[in-house]
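Schema walk-through. Below, the input block comes first and the output block second. Nothing else is stored per chain. Lengths vary across the set, and this one has 82 residues.
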Amino acid sequence: MKKIIATAAAATFALGLVACNGTNEEAGEQADDVTEAQGEVLDAQSGVTEAKADLAEEKGDEATAAQLEDKADMQEDAADEM
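--- output ---
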């Protein structure tokens, strides 16, 4: 009888661990999705910054254009690292 109770307790414990691991896996996948979305937003922002740099260059403001291009490069690098 003690062996049956011990086996049942072990099985219950193992099932509990499996259930917790599934939740952890789902949470990890959600975190990955959020990180990927943040990277996509940064990439889009770098595109906007590049467009602003192009406009500044067309207006003849080379200093601002260079600063904006540097900022766009940093945003793109940050997006790639995510």
